[in-house]
Design brief:
62% of the residues lie in helices and 0% in strands. The protein is built from three helices and no strands. The longest helix has 27 residues.
Length: 74
């Protein structure tokens, strides 16, 4: 409904101002809405990927000795 709110809430002031001007002209309002929706989807995907990467990060101990491998004798 209000594409400029998407940009102002994420801290993108310049994009928010551009979206306000696009909303004022009724001709460009659908483009502003599509732009905000696309931005919200991309931002959401990036946030989910970052959360997934943080959740599955393996903590490596730099002082740990390498594991020894033994041969099995048959």
């Amino acid at each position: 409904m209000m594409p400029c709110v998407t940009f102002f809430s994420t801290g993108r002031i310049f994009f928010g101002i551009v979206a306000v001007f696009m909303q004022v002209s009724l001709v460009f309002w659908p483009q502003a809405a599509a732009w905000a929706r696309r931005y919200r989807e991309v931002d959401g995907v990036d946030r989910l990927l970052a959360e997934f990467a943080d959740a599955h990060r393996v903590q490596a101990d730099p002082y740990a000795l390498p594991q020894k491998r033994f041969r099995q004798v048959a």
